[in-house]
Design the sequence.
């Protein structure tokens, strides 16, 4: 699982029947130490009802489809948690 | 997931029997802002997408997660047409 920020939402009228009632969001990875955006933005299904600007956790690959109530959702990236805070203890390596 | 524009279809007479009944699309990868990326994909069409439309792709093992693609040798499926992306400061129509 990874930390990301929701940066956009999408409009899609024609989609697979398994996506009924599910929103597609645009997310970009966040560096947990600095809070800065890193990497390329990607698309993700939303299982928790997040909104633009929120920090979320998302899961990838096969199990991403299992975040929903029915098992046959086609998804390789799913937002599964809204993050309230991150605690990091810095140590000299 | 990633998005891309449908730029063509694939014709194949000799293929895995589990592909029968599905259209295979050639897709050119795009980024979220509507620009093109380097990659190309061949993907199974589950929604009836047409040429020149911007679609979303599910790739990898997750592509086998539905009833239609379960137990088949498929690792990329087209699952949605994307019409518009809204950011906090701008709106991009993908047409």
Sequence:
């Amino acid at each position: 699982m990874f930390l990301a920020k929701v940066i956009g939402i999408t409009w899609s009228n024609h989609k697979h029947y398994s996506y009924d009632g599910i929103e597609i969001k645009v997310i970009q990875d966040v560096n947990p130490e600095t809070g800065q955006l890193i990497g390329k933005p990607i698309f993700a299904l939303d299982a928790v009802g997040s909104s633009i600007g929120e920090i979320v956790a998302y899961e990838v690959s096969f199990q991403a489809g299992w975040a929903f109530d029915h098992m046959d959702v086609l998804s390789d990236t799913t937002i599964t948690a809204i993050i309230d805070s991150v605690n990091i203890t810095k140590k000299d390596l | 997931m990633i998005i891309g524009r449908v730029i063509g279809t694939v014709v194949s007479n000799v293929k895995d029997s589990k592909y029968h009944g599905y259209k295979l699309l050639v897709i050119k990868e795009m980024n979220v802002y509507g620009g093109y990326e380097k990659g190309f994909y061949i993907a199974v069409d589950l929604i009836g997408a047409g040429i020149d439309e911007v679609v979303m792709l599910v790739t990898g093992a997750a592509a086998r997660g539905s009833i239609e693609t379960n137990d088949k040798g498929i690792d990329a499926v087209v699952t949605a047409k994307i019409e518009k992306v809204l950011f906090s400061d701008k709106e991009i129509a993908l047409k």
Remarks:
- The interface with chain A takes residues 1-3, 31-32, 46-47, 56, 58-67, 69, 77, 79-88 of chain B (CB under 8 Å).
- The two ends of chain B are 19 Å apart (CA to CA).
